[in-house]
Design goal:
Strands 1-2-3-5-4 form a 5-stranded mixed barrel. 47% of the residues lie in helices and 27% in strands. The termini are far apart. The chain has 4 helices and 5 strands, in the order αβαββαββα. By secondary structure, it is an alpha+beta fold.
Length: 163
């Protein structure tokens, strides 16, 4: 009997926590949608030469101190996608959207959609942009070798049956 009471209390606490998380998540989603609309309203297309791109903490990124101060304290240590680019005569450090970061080519000229210091989109000036192919992991390479070897053995076995 005593165990059922404890289980009921734990279950009630979990249900309350899930309800609170649902409403907090809904509120955060509304804030994110409002920010996305502001970014879309302020974006401009700019031609730039990409010098370098790295993932690094905000304090090492070369961003203005005012921007670093506005980043929440918990996020300051996280690595951010930073792009160093030449926009006109100026060399600037820009923050890149995570989904666009892999498409940004190094040492090439691109047309980028920029909202302040935030890159939201990239298009190639001369040709299309392709994401670099990722290296296969060790186990995927080994599996491919085994599959190729077994396919070769099955071909040899079929030839031996025909003779």
């Amino acid at each position: 009997m005593n165990g059922w009471i404890i289980m009921g209390i734990v279950l009630a606490v979990l249900v309350i926590a899930l309800v609170v998380l649902y409403f907090v998540g809904k509120k955060m989603q509304k804030k994110q949608d409002a920010q996305r609309e502001q970014i879309e309203a302020a974006k401009q297309t700019v031609t730039m030469l990409i010098i370098d791109k790295k993932r690094m903490p905000a304090k090492d990124s070369g961003l203005p101190q005012m921007v670093i101060d506005q980043i929440p304290k918990l996020m300051r240590r996280n690595k951010m996608p930073i792009v160093k680019a030449k926009v006109g005569p100026k060399i600037m450090s820009l923050v890149c959207e995570e989904s666009v970061f892999d498409l940004v080519p190094v040492k090439k000229e691109v047309k980028a959609e920029v909202s302040g210091i935030y890159i939201t989109g990239v298009k190639g000036i001369r040709g299309s942009l392709e994401a670099p192919k990722k290296k296969q992991g060790f186990f995927k390479r080994m599996r491919a070798k085994v599959e190729a070897a077994s396919a070769e053995q099955s071909k040899q076995a079929k030839k031996a049956k025909k003779k």
